[in-house]
């Protein structure tokens, strides 16, 4: 064989989109974002703002706009290399809507109606159960399949949607030959699962009406300290990990994720000390953990020109890949191209 031929191994594709529905929390950071820069070293990664998904809930136009810019700036501030990874806004790549429609026609009403998130959301937003809410998972499937993603890092609440994307991909592959990579959930190092500071048996959520229950990624050090100091604990006064102590255990898991210390080491460190000392240390660790991200974000959010030019680059690169898949799908289905 010709020794000059270079075989470059193709990296596997990982894709994840985040909805611009409010500032992400410390839970989103420790559970996902913190690992993305590391993940991006080993995979061909695409990250995006799922702004089309977020209009299933009515939002003031000004608010939507500032949230899209904020989430995009957050993605740019995670230490990812925007030259190597594609960081894009979903609505700026028209193929998402186009493939989304096509996938609607290959998804049964009953399949979409079974989605537990649709059932939950139609109860929660009973005054606006729109068709977009119903077809949300087919748009998500389009997001994934357009880029031939091998892996999608998903939380528990998105597993069923990924399962549907797999079913649709398999179904269309059987009908038309190999159109799509069938995506699998990304099994990486499990990120920390962060619970509410006020009800530590519930997941920390950015939409919790009690703002003391979550730490936003953009909270100032003062606010972080205040929120951790008022976190719900118990009356025992001893720092150790136990299911019976969800408040303290949650703070321990946060502290461990930020410092790399094991639970044993943490128990040792706070042996004989009270919750006051422990909470101060947790707050300090969280503030330090978010500091580099925060510095980068503050710089980027004030540089609108950089944000817009990054969006343009991201959209162009994403579209180039998305178009390849969409063209193939349309051709196989029987649409006519004049090219
Ligand atoms: N539905 C996801 C969520 O709410 C966001 C999302 C949209 C997504 N498209 C995606 C996640 C594609 C992974 C892949 O969290």
- Percent helix: 40-55%
Specify the CATH architecture of the largest domain.
3-Layer(aba) Sandwich
Give a list of the ligands: tryptophan
**Residue-averaged pLDDT:** 95
CATH fold node name of the largest domain: Rossmann fold
Q: Beta-sheet strand percentage? A: 5-15%
Number of helices: 13
Radius of gyration: 22 Å
Strand order of the largest sheet: 1-2-3
Could you say which overall geometry the principal axes of the C-alpha atoms support? Answer: globular
Break the fold down into its secondary structure elements and pairings.
Blueprint: E1 13-18, H1 26-42, E2 44-49, H2 51-54, H3 61-76, E3 86-89, H4 95-104, H5 109-113, H6 116-124, H7 131-146, E4 151-152, H8 159-176, E5 184-185, H9 221-229, H10 246-259, H11 263-269, H12 275-301, H13 304-333
Helix pairs in contact: 3-12, 4-7, 4-13, 7-8, 9-12, 10-12
Bound molecules: tryptophan (TRP).
Overall description:
- With 339 residues, this protein is mainly alpha-helical.
- It folds into 2 domains: 13-187 and 304-333, 3-Layer(aba) Sandwich (Rossmann fold), CATH 3.40.50; 211-299, Orthogonal Bundle (Tyrosyl-Transfer RNA Synthetase), CATH 1.10.240.
- It is built from 13 helices and 5 strands.
- The chain has helices at 26-42, 51-54, 61-76, 95-104, 109-113, 116-124, 131-146, 159-176, 221-229, 246-259, 263-269, 275-301, 304-333; strands spanning 13-18, 44-49, 86-89, 151-152, 184-185.
- The strands form 2 sheets. A 3-stranded parallel sheet has the order 1-2-3.
- Tryptophan (TRP) binds at residues 15-17, 19, 50, 53, 140, 143-144, 152, 158.
